[in-house]
Amino acid sequence: PVTRRVSIFGATGSIGQNTIDLIARDAEAYDVVALTGASNIEQLAADAIRLNADIAVTANEGRLEELRAALAGSGIEAAAGQGALIEAAQRPVDWVMSAIVGAAGLQPGICALEQGATLALANKESLVCAGELILRTAKQNGARLLPVDSEHSAVFQALVGEDMNAVERIIITASGGAFRDWPLDDLANATLDQASSHPNWDMGQRITIDSASMFNKALELIETREYFGVSPAQIEVLVHPESMIHAMVGFRDGALMAHVGPPDMRHAIGYALHWPDRRALPVERLDLAAIGALTFRPPDEKRWPALRLAREVMERRGLAGAVFNAAKETALDGFIAGHLRFPQMAEVVDQVLNSLDPSHIDAQMTLDNVMNADHMARQAATRAIEQTTG
Ligand code: NDP
Ligand code: MG
């Protein structure tokens, strides 16, 4: 049997660990090239040894010795820092999981596309910051881009065999996150712990908080626009507390194709891993009779101003997505550090979007310009946070 060469960027995170779970179940089928992580050296080394990877890379330069020690005697190469991450991403493979969190995932993903690998994209920030660049790089190198975000995987699956011209609308669902039913006035007192617990999904801390604020759904609106090439007016968000339907595609004949599945990322990861085949996956089989009812509500833009901000970004395009994401990441850091109250994250992002020089946002989409926009937006957001906290 042919083994597939695979690399996992962000192997120590929530998506990375779910990916490793699937790969480890069928280890002979894969030749693992690179695993990358950042602070969790122990996990990184253990998985590199378990999967017999060629190289393990930590993004943290200062952790090299620790990683070397953990890998001692295994014959597995250890490396650290941004340069090492890029070098590992350039190693030829057939399939890559892009699951670093944040804009830090952009450049390694581009390297993977440049060498023609299939890129399974969990890192939604790549499409938000640089959608046009990502799609162009994939096209120029004959590389395939597969969505892993559950909503986008669902849309992708609903579109198999369909003509994009027959698509009227795309509906992505949102659980509503931790504060869906809270009185609006209480949001200002939401704690980090409260924001970090998700009613349905078990995910990394940052995306969990982004689910409560709907910055996650905001990023996904932009991601939908970039990946599927539909207009902003064709994309809707629907609150669906049960998180069973992940997305729906509406066609011109009135049909809605809904993707239903348990809230387990191994479905979307497995779909991208085995595409275009469908293989058996270790996910729960839904008992709809036991579930009884699925419910839906419109999203409340007062509760979730991030959705309105995403609409602005989708209209402006260009580097507005990079600015939006960087401001969001900085505001999220501010909330995690206790410098911002929960609703102030959206205020900071709004201020940054309105304060930047339009000529920067309209600049050509190159990696340098994206990184530059990201950098300026982080500075502007840091200033806005300082003003907010006095
Ligand atoms: P986690 O926080 O659980 O994991 C993030 C991974 O990135 C870890 O391996 C972490 O290393 C690594 N990392 C963190 N910072 C850096 C950096 N500066 N440079 C390089 N590597 C870094 O995140 P998730 O797995 O939850 O999410 C990963 C991506 O997938 C995100 O873009 C998220 O939006 C997306 N996604 C996640 C879903 C989920 O269910 N979790 C669902 C849909 C999309 P370490 O832990 O060793 O420090
Ligand atoms: Mg999602």
Automatic annotation (TrEMBL):
InterPro entries assigned? DXP_reductoisomerase (IPR003821), DXP_reductoisomerase_C (IPR013644), DXP_reductoisomerase_N (IPR013512), DXPR_C (IPR026877), DXPR_C_sf (IPR036169), NAD(P)-bd_dom_sf (IPR036291)
Cite the 1-deoxy-D-xylulose 5-phosphate reductoisomerase N-terminal domain residue spans from the record: 6-131
User: Does Heme appear among the keywords?
Assistant: no
Cite the SUPFAM superfamilies for this sequence.
Answer: 1-deoxy-D-xylulose-5-phosphate reductoisomerase, C-terminal domain, Glyceraldehyde-3-phosphate dehydrogenase-like, C-terminal domain, NAD(P)-binding Rossmann-fold domains
Per UniProt, where does 1-deoxy-D-xylulose 5-phosphate bind? K124, S150, E151, S175, H198, S211, N216, K217, E220
Report which superkingdom the organism of origin falls in.
Answer: Bacteria
Q: Which reaction does it catalyse?
A: 2-C-methyl-D-erythritol 4-phosphate + NADP(+) = 1-deoxy-D-xylulose 5-phosphate + NADPH + H(+)
- Write out the residues that bind Mn(2+): D149, E151, E220
Which residues does the UniProt record annotate as the domain 1-deoxy-D-xylulose 5-phosphate reductoisomerase C-terminal? 145-228
Q: Which GO terms describe its molecular function?
A: 1-deoxy-D-xylulose-5-phosphate reductoisomerase activity
Q: What class of enzyme is it?
A: oxidoreductase
Q: Where does NADPH bind?
A: T12, G13, S14, I15, A38, N40, N123, E125, G204
According to the entry, every stretch annotated as the DXP reductoisomerase C-terminal domain falls at: 261-379
Q: Write down the required cofactor(s).
A: Mg(2+); Mn(2+)
Task: Check the record and name the Gene3D superfamilies matching this protein.
Answer: 1.10.1740.10, NAD(P)-binding Rossmann-like Domain
Q: Which key words tag this protein in UniProt?
A: Isoprene biosynthesis, Magnesium, Manganese, Metal-binding, NADP, Oxidoreductase
- EC number assigned by the record: 1.1.1.267
Pfam families associated with the record:
DXP_redisom_C, DXP_reductoisom, DXPR_C
What pathway does this protein act in? Isoprenoid biosynthesis; isopentenyl diphosphate biosynthesis via DXP pathway; isopentenyl diphosphate from 1-deoxy-D-xylulose 5-phosphate: step 1/6
What's its job? Catalyzes the NADPH-dependent rearrangement and reduction of 1-deoxy-D-xylulose-5-phosphate (DXP) to 2-C-methyl-D-erythritol 4-phosphate (MEP).
State the similarity comment.
Answer: Belongs to the DXR family.
Checking NCBIfam families in the record gives: Dxr
This chain's protein is named 1-deoxy-D-xylulose 5-phosphate reductoisomerase
Q: Native species of this protein?
A: Tateyamaria armeniaca
Q: Which gene encodes it?
A: dxr
